[in-house]
Amino acid sequence: LPGGPDTVFFLSDFGSKDEFAGVVRAVLRRLAPGAVVVDLTHEIAPFDVAAGARTLVRALPYLGPGVVLAVVDPGVGSSRRGVALAAGGPEPRFFVGPDNGLLLPAAELVGDPMVAVELERPVPEGDVTTFDGRDLFAPAVAALCNGAPLADLGTTIDPDTLVRLLLPLSRHSRLPDGRIVRWSQVSWVDRFGNLQLSASPSDEDPEVFALAWPEGEEKGEGGAGAPAGRMVRRVRAFAELRAGELGVIVDANARLALVVREGSAAELLGVGVGQVLGLAEPPA
Amino acid sequence: LPGGPDTVFFLSDFGSKDEFAGVVRAVLRRLAPGAVVVDLTHEIAPFDVAAGARTLVRALPYLGPGVVLAVVDPGVGSSRRGVALAAGGPEPRFFVGPDNGLLLPAAELVGDPMVAVELERPVPEGDVTTFDGRDLFAPAVAALCNGAPLADLGTTIDPDTLVRLLLPLSRHSRLPDGRIVRWSQVSWVDRFGNLQLSASPSDEDPEVFALAWPEGEEKGEGGAGAPAGRMVRRVRAFAELRAGELGVIVDANARLALVVREGSAAELLGVGVGQVLGLAEPPA
Amino acid sequence: LPGGPDTVFFLSDFGSKDEFAGVVRAVLRRLAPGAVVVDLTHEIAPFDVAAGARTLVRALPYLGPGVVLAVVDPGVGSSRRGVALAAGGPEPRFFVGPDNGLLLPAAELVGDPMVAVELERPVPEGDVTTFDGRDLFAPAVAALCNGAPLADLGTTIDPDTLVRLLLPLSRHSRLPDGRIVRWSQVSWVDRFGNLQLSASPSDEDPEVFALAWPEGEEKGEGGAGAPAGRMVRRVRAFAELRAGELGVIVDANARLALVVREGSAAELLGVGVGQVLGLAEPPA
User: Fold this and answer.
1) Are B212 and B173 in contact (CB under 8 A)?
2) Binary contact (B131, C252; C-beta < 8 A)
3) What three-state secondary structure class fits C184?
4) Average per-residue pLDDT in chain A?
5) Nearest C-alpha of chain A: how many angstroms from B159?
6) Cβ of residue C37 closer than 8 Å to a chain B Cβ
């Protein structure tokens, strides 16, 4: 395309049941016919901005040059801003969507410099204010693909004013017997039931972890009350586990994850996104 | 493409579980390699021709030049015709699919002139008669993309003979106290549980509506029997509602819709597509 | 593309809930920007290699030149090989994925000659061993699209060493009254509930079949115990059936299938993939 990016990475909570994502793709095709749309996913849970933000962070290292169009937007029609960001250089990556915390973590992962504009809103036809993906964001993405400079899309704003999500908890404490336990949160349950943690691997990770639960939340096979403090092996691949065995793996995003070979760790432990879990050294 | 449209807008009830839509895309790629396929949705409920037709009508204003390929086809293998339509000009929009009411409302929205042909059926290999999307419609779409005139695809037929769906109910009546109530039907429940009505907004709409139910069908929070005649505010954006509050909005297709902020109006009211609902002026 | 195929047919068990398939598409876009990705389906049941293999076999006759990228991979991270295959000629079809039986049936359907290489594994970053679709297979596909000869992707191996799935059962026996019954398995339940059988049609098929069940497995409307030995008409099209009637049809893959007009044969009979069913001549 003349001077602009030629790829649009598209993520939303639009689902596949309706034509929402399809209509946005049609608008992009009409306004920027040379751009190729790469769908990341449209099955972010409705209104779950944080899940969308985490998904973009996971995907970002694998995206080439282009524009990320992301729409998880419970505040559509309110005074929340629509924004376009350019991050990094000399070939910046672009991000277009609502200013609600969805875009910023991935944009910051690209790195400095960051430039931000508040999108100028076209005069809506009738009273329509509920589909900014189609009416505001897709036209902005198309303009970028057609070579428009970022500044032409609206008013430059201070990136420090962009809405920022709270970070997931991650802290250390000591068990009664003195062992250190690293607490983190389940940040993603994928299709297979793997539980990605907000914790990253460390060179000091033991070969076997003791799984720790916040007081009163112990769960296990089939529900609460089950084997608190169970031992979990750290493995390099699913195949090192026995069928049905729970293990800890460094997952495809270089994060620690609780997994079951050919099974669901989420089902085995009965937990979901947000659950706090601790990894401790095994008892002496 | 040489003289033909270069975009295919594809809608079906094929779902994503099987390879049906993928195989049709593969046939298009093989026969018209330069055409770009824009998937609208493949999650139309199985056999629900009317839902497919309404989805095409909603999407149509946002589609650029191209061919709409739509397949919701309970009559496949019967004597129902396969058709291709050209609507409007000088650059007509094309529609290819079964003659069962699916295509006509969107084609009529494009406007006159309308030209229709009954697709000539290729000799089936073996006894295969169950997948016209792959064997009849996709080849016809590819021929159009490759520049074939519409008339080359089959026999010209009178557009007035095309199958037409019944229109949704919409009428006015008076409540016992003399207030006028406008009755319409729920025409779409989207992923978020928003209830699109067959009614359009009017300059005379009051700021607050009284929701009316057909006799004996009163429903409400959690089921029947609940607050019939509840007051519903008309708002311009979701954000003007309190969390959980039911409101009336002009939705992204310029239709009236019952919505809940960050929630599901369908769940709140316990209704689905086809439910008749009335909007009345509030009591004096 | 310079000397390489320009189309990638992509099938997986990644689902649509997560960004897995999207990230693979992004990697392909980055490494082989001129290639077009045609998604076949990503809703193969998790880890169901045989279902993936059968889906590829069904789709294959409709795929033009290109590379099939297929990932259903319970053994990721184990010693199972990643492979690339070239089948047929002079313009071979390519297949890239795990060596677990997923690719071989479709590749053999293309025909001889078959050339196979074990993919050379790039040095993994960190300990990541769980996402070969992204890290091993997509780069190999991109290399082929960019014109790399198959042999450049790794070490040539003997195709006879490729993992082979067991074939579905298909055998004949005699009922007590001497009639011949042909036993086969349900190989696919599609979105509509049609039951594809591993049996193919024959010129000697009668107009009406008697449905036979393995001893002790008789099922029927709503569950076990129902009309064993029911008569099922062979029809050429759904439309020849009454609404709700069970019939046998030659389906879109030229296989025998049990179907219900505008209904689900799977629900009517209460069966799923793998169920053994018999088709017999009707009693004299």
Assistant:
1) no
2) yes
3) strand
4) 91
5) 27
6) no
E strand or H helix that includes residue B54: helix B49-59
Nearest CA to A190 out of A127, A253, A280 is that of: A253
Residues of chain C contacting residue B46, judged by C-beta atoms under 8 Å apart: 191-192
- The string of DSSP letters for A143-161 reads HHHTT--GGGGEEEE-GGG
pTM: 0.91
Q: Is B26 on the interface with A (CB under 8 A)?
A: no
Residue range C193-201: mean pLDDT, rounded: 93
User: Which are the contacts of B123, defined by CB distance < 8 A and separation ≥ 6?
Assistant: none
Selecting from B23, B26, B129 the residue whose C-beta is nearest the C-beta of C236 gives B129
Residue C222 in this model has a pLDDT that exceeds 70: no
Q: Write the pLDDT tens digit of every residue in C109-166.
A: 999 999 999 999 877 666 667 899 999 999 999 999 999 999 999 999 999 999 999 7
Residues 167-206 of A with CB under 8 A from C: 188, 190-192, 201
**What are B93's strand-pairing partners?**
B87
Within 13 Å and on the Cβ side, how many CA atoms surround A97? Answer: 29
DSSP H/E element including A168: none
Shortest distance, CA B42 to any CA of chain A (angstroms): 7
- For the record, the structure tokens of A275 come out as 């659950």
For residue B96, the one-letter residue type is V
Q: What is the DSSP string of C197-235?
A: ESPPP-TT--SEEEEE--TT--EETTEETS-TT-EEEEE
Closest CA to C163 of C50, C42, C12: C50
Q: H helices then E strands: how many in chain A?
A: 6, 17
**Nearest to B133, CA basis, from B19, B6, B5, B1:** B19
C-alpha–C-alpha distance, residues A46 and A72, integer Å: 7
Q: A149-158, A243-252, C136-145 — which is least confidently predicted?
A: A243-252
* Spatial distance between the Cα atoms of B159 and B153, rounded to a whole number of angstroms: 15
- Cβ under 8 Å to C: A residues 95-154: none
A20 and B190: CB-CB below 8 Å?
yes
Distance CA B72, CA A21 (A): 19
CA distance B6 to B8: 7
Half-sphere exposure of A277 (CA within 13 A, CB side): 31
Best C29, C39, C47, C71 member to test A by mutation, with max A CBs in 10 Å, is C29
Q: Chain A residue with minimal CA distance to C74? A: A262
Instruction: Tell me whether C39 touches chain B (CB under 8 Å).
Output: yes
pLDDT band for A1, please (50, 70, 90 cuts).
low
pLDDT digits (tens, 9 = 90+) for C99-125: 999 999 999 999 999 999 999 987 766
DSSP string, A95-145: EEEESSSSSHHHHHHH-S-EEEEEEPPPPPSTT--S-HIIIIIHHHHHHHH
- List all residues 6 or more positions away from C214 whose beta carbon is below 8 Å from its beta carbon: C183, C276, C278
Mean pLDDT confidence for A211-228: 67
Cross-chain Cβ contact C190/B17 below 8 Å: yes
Tokens 């199972």, residue?
C80
pLDDT for residue B175: 84
| Nearest Cα residue in chain A from C14 | A191
**pLDDT-wise least confident of A154-158, B243-247, C26-30, C97-101:** B243-247
C chain contacts of residue B30, beta-carbon cutoff 8 Å: 62-64
Contact residues on chain C for A188, CB-CB shorter than 8 A: 18
The answer to whether the CB atoms of C22 and A41 lie below 8 A apart is: yes
